[in-house]
């Protein structure tokens, strides 16, 4: 009875893991990178140096928006924090049009000047790809990602049942033993960070729970917007009165809001009807200041600065959701914990990747004719090549494109993103046309070479190369280079291992057949 | 600094737990360990993990402390696995 449960769980684990493993690998890899999205953005805008003061940045942003979008319906301002030095602004044009991306948003420095030197989506793209994917409608992407996450959760649970000796094999990581080593790697990466994997998968589903399970809201509220209004107290936008009245200085209001939250800083500002007598300013607490992702808010009248004592959403369910999203995104984490998040994420990526490889390793031994595997096997093997070295190469090329594309290229951020996918596609195609074993060596080596090229190209194209970063104590750039070198080393090492393995196999076909005879 | 100490504690905890397991004893100390000692190592291991949690909880509060503790325990386990492998790889004495 017990064994049949384990067998059915193993079967389920194998196939659910395989079916969505490729997507999960991409989600894990980009999600892991997204823990450093602000740092990646800073690396991708090497012209921006130093740090910015939130209050001065808010004033600068208002100056910019007064000039560019004085009659907007609303402004949204994301302030710099300890990790970023720029202000992101976004506005809804007054004529009600949605406006193209890039025309209704800008990245500003502390003085409120638009930064146009090197336009990039930076780490934000990797973050968005993690759940919105790309080149497809966001809604579809989120359903797809949700299905993958659901499978992930069931794969983890069935994996725990399948894993026979979770405690006895806790420390088991044997190298150079073929299938056994892949199983060890899969088990160890899964078990060591098991609390993280469970947390990240479950909370990931929670971030989009009201989209995946809309029925609770549908049964109790007339429409989702009514629910939003009742829970979050979003007041319907007041009509512009037509009486122009300049916005009061935001700095004292920010201090007042911050004082009301026990000193936690303001992270976001939204202003509705700016420049009008009905203007309303809403401050939201910085996500770095507490675990809960939904920050406290404070509202003020934009024309007078009067505290509007806004309704703040509360309740146990909302607080739980807020903390879960906070745990998932890790925005509260200081640098030490952020690295732990990152390393756990790497562990998760390796877990998914080793699981995918394990599927083929396990079946290769049982193939009737190993030289000519059946279609399904070949497909999985090729997709593994596309998914693992392919995505890695793509991300490295994304960083390289940031340094190599001309600064004044039209739609530069999109071209950077296209480079990622073109490289990914190229590696995928390469994996299709080459013999599988050779393709593994070549694509892993390519990924390694691309990562190794990043610090070199960075040193050649900017004044913030490794040596300069060391002398300036520029830890962000030092760490970025080191991570690139570490990734390069891992991929090149893996390429070497595959090549070695292939050479051994080619040298000893006799031994292999004799061993097979023995095992039969 | 205190976090480095916590990771070191977690690593020590897992080494203790490994020491309580027959298959790792020869790698770690070159011989098998009597059952009574092994039980002691197991208790010490779990106590160290608990101590690590108490330390972080005391430093950062129960909420953030627990999150950091889970991350550090994972790190400690990785280090322990690295040490076990390094010891196992050395030629037998």
TrEMBL record, chain A:
- Its domain of life? Bacteria
TM annotation in the entry = 140-161, 182-206, 339-361, 382-401, 421-437, 444-463, 475-495
Pfam families registered for this protein in UniProt: PepSY_TM (PF03929)
Entry keywords, A to Z = Membrane, Transmembrane, Transmembrane helix
InterPro entries (UniProt xref) = PepSY-ass_TM
Protein name per the record = Peptidase
From TrEMBL, chain B:
Q: Which domain of life is it from?
A: Bacteria
Statement: the UniProt record of this protein carries the keyword Transmembrane helix: yes
- Residue ranges of the TM segments: 6-22, 43-61, 67-86
User: By its UniProt entry, which Pfam families does this protein fall under?
Assistant: DUF3325 (PF11804)
Q: Which UniProt keywords apply?
A: Membrane, Transmembrane, Transmembrane helix
InterPro entries this protein is in? DUF3325
Q: What is the name of the protein in this document? A: DUF3325 domain-containing protein
| Organism (species) | Novosphingobium barchaimii LL02
For this protein's source organism, the top of the classification is: Bacteria, Pseudomonadati, Pseudomonadota, Alphaproteobacteria, Sphingomonadales
